[in-house]
Task: structure prediction
Amino acid sequence: MIRVVLADDHTIMREGLKRILDGADDIVVVGEATDGFEALAQVRKGGFDLLLLDLSMPGRSGVELIRQIKDEAPKLPILVLTMHDEEQYAVRTFRAGARGYLTKESAGTQLLCAIRKLASGRPYISNAVAEQLAMDAMPASECLPHKELSNREFEVFSLLVAGKTVSEIAELLHLSAKTVSTHKTRILHKMAMHSLADMVKYAMNHRLVPSMQH
Result:
């Protein structure tokens, strides 16, 4: 039996995931978390085999949370569940220690397969993500400006080029609008750009624009 802890701050999402998992004879949900602190508490308590982790939750979240969990429980498989379908997000989560990456839109058809793969010791990775990981390993990719962004900055960058406003991003990432604006300023500075239009053009040229608007 694969014992799973669900970490997602949306009650409806957790209930939906539980309904999917209830249909599997070999998977059982043994705990839930609604933010990064509760997720860490579940990790410290132990007694489960796999963590299903939403990438954006209140408190500590995202890549930083994955790193902390891996520091405390190096062998615990983490399956990231996210609204972001860009490969660059997946690359950053894998580097932090995640073993699988799944968009919420594909959870209905792929969740059980992904969980079983991770539980058997194998990663769950799409062909697009595998290609991006290979490309990132090549020396030529090291000097691209977006590689210099922190994980949070890259998250804000991706949402900006997807057409989200500062206030919408603040709500999505559980940040203040002022903090998002600060990130935007730093992104422009780091990438030597002057406007959002510059960012969008860059994202399109480097295939960083999400294939679907969220």
About this structure: The first strand starts at residue 2 and ends at 7. The two ends are 35 Å apart (CA to CA). The domain at 144-205 is CATH 1.10.10.10 (Arc Repressor Mutant, subunit A).
